Amino acid sequence: MNLTLIMTKVFLKIFSRDRQAIIFSLIFPLLMMLAFGFFNSGDPEPIVVGIADNANSSLSQDFIDNIDENPLFTVAQGTEQSLRPQVINGNIGFTLVIPEEFRGNPANIDLRVLIDTSETTQMNTVIPLLQQALVDVERDLRNLEPLFDLAIEDVESRTQSYLDFLVPGLLAMALMQIAMGGSGFNLVEFRRKGILKRLFVTPVQPKNFITGLVLSRLVIVIIQLSILLGIAILLLDITFIGNLFNLYVFIILGTTIFLSLGFCMGSLAKTQQAIMAMNMLMTWPQMLLSGIFYPIDAMPSLVQPMANLLPLSFVVNGLRGVAIEGANVITLMPNVIGILIWVTIALGFAIKLFNWKEVAT
Amino acid sequence: MSIVKTENLHKKYPEPGKKSEFFYAVNGTSLTIDAGEIYGILGPNGAGKTTTLEMVEGLTDIDEGDAWVDGISVKQDPYRVKKIIGVQLQANEYFDHLNLSELIALFSQLYGRHDDPLDLLGRVNLDEKALAKPKELSGGQQQRFSIACALVHEPKVLFLDEPTTGLDPQAKRNIWELVRNLNDKGMTIVLTTHNMEESEYLCNRIAIMDHGKIIAEGSPQELILSHAPEPPKAPLHGNLEDVFLALTGTGLRE
């Protein structure tokens, strides 16, 4: 049997028996996915509206019912004195005070709203909705037909949630962590144990060894990412409209970058501590800046040009493009080129740094 | 007939702590080992024993000179040499998660063979440990396992780097018997040691190395006769340890 194949098989056997490593490398992206999956499910939490009804009339009752029907609000009735402190401590979003004159055929009545104006986002959503509720009540009262109505039509046949945006990014992040950690740590470990030396007095050549390590890691990464993707699609019901071939092209190319970078670190680092520090230096900036959690466009404009050139950014863009836009390798060509440039750089360094006669001793 | 030959081997390393200065770890070593011999390389720590072996094994680049195994030049054809030599290194850790039987099977496959690992483990009395991990073995068992890994392809020459260092007397004797048995069946064995008893008991010929050079060579008896200082009145001839200390001095080495 071919020596490369023998090495690949043996590494696969070793890695697949390291259950702890497999499980723990899946836990972090899984937890993130599940957390965001549950946050995003269903409607947003309704805002509690306190209403002090001083009129107690059929008109005020109509108005309260109108507000209660809106899914954004739940109504809590009480007196102004009892509701005011609850607005202050934040239990209640705001309180409406309905004056006594709110009955019969009223005119020019002011409704007072008790609200914490520092909560600007709440202000901006709440005030128009309240005004709309008042307009509805007024129309009913005056028997007016509305002049205009908005008919909302969904032009995008699929709706996109934050989770749809996040999952491809998390896949890319998991890919980076598994690939980068794996290859570099293995190299340092095998050297320190004298395993590299022992292998290189057999007919195994460095190219058999490296290719075997890369191929086996690729298989492991593909299996782990498939598990994550499967969970995201089946359990969390994310939108995935791309085709798998394009997705795996990006996964394989991306894994190659980070395996090569891992080899660079493994060739340079003399100890496990050193490689841990290098690993942090390489992975953290990319996790923060590659648009995994929020788009690069939303970052400070000074950071954007650099963020766009990070290897992980290309992988994130590629995976996300395929998953939620149904893009393919051709339409995502700029990212493919970016990835290929990084593969060349990383592989070049890895080959230059991995002088096995020095690395082995 | 010679099976291992080195000619004027040199290896230089940067002087520790001093930039741009070099020292020769191996400084012109020439030796000839005959087929069927047990050949010992003796020397204090840092004498260049391991570096010499690693150059012959193709693990370390040869700066000057060359080495041949069975007529094949290590410099020109290292991978043909690696196919006919078996090597036991000082460090003997292996991949986690693989047991003895799987490791032996792996090493066999690397030489294109598919022998039953249990046969080989039986030869070093480890067949009952076939499913254990190397870490679970005692020191002597680990050393026997390392030798077994070096035997998977029935090499023409077996290199053992300090095979009994750190072992108790029983385990040591056990390794000696194993080495003798292998040699009885025709295998050439090259070993490094700083155990005088070991070289006297096992080796047909010995080279004493110091400062990267071979300073004496011969059978244990010859070396004792020509180098051991005659004690003034005692009838004894001294032993190899006297030879070793007379040649390399009593200063502590590290």
How many separate helices of chain A? 14
Write the CATH fold name of chain B.
Answer: Rossmann fold
What letter string, H or E per element, gives the SSE order of chain A? HHEHEHEEHHHHHHHHHH
Helical residue percent of chain B?
25-40%
CATH level-1 class of chain B: Alpha Beta
Quick recap:
With 361 residues, chain A is mainly alpha-helical.
Describe the structure using short key phrases:
heterodimer; A: mainly alpha; D-Maltodextrin-Binding Protein, domain 2; 2 domains; four-stranded mixed sheet; 14 helices; 4 strands; 65% helix; elongated; B: 254 residues; alpha/beta; Rossmann fold; four-stranded antiparallel sheet
Task: List the topology elements.
The complex is a heterodimer of chains A (361) and B (254).
Chain A: H1 3-17, H2 19-40, E1 47-53, H3 58-69, E2 73-77, H4 80-88, E3 94-98, E4 112-115, H5 120-142, H6 162-192, H7 195-199, H8 206-234, H9 244-268, H10 272-289, H11 304-309, H12 311-325, H13 333-353, H14 356-359
Parallel strand pairs in A: 1-2, 1-3
Antiparallel strand pairs in A: 3-4
Helix pairs in contact in A: 1-8, 2-6, 2-8, 3-5, 6-8, 6-9, 6-10, 6-12, 8-9, 9-12, 9-13, 12-13
Chain B: E1 2-14, E2 22-34, E3 38-42, H1 49-57, E4 64-69, E5 72-73, H2 78-84, E6 85-88, H3 100-110, H4 117-123, H5 139-150, E7 157-161, H6 169-184, E8 188-193, H7 196-202, E9 205-210, E10 213-218, H8 220-227, H9 240-248
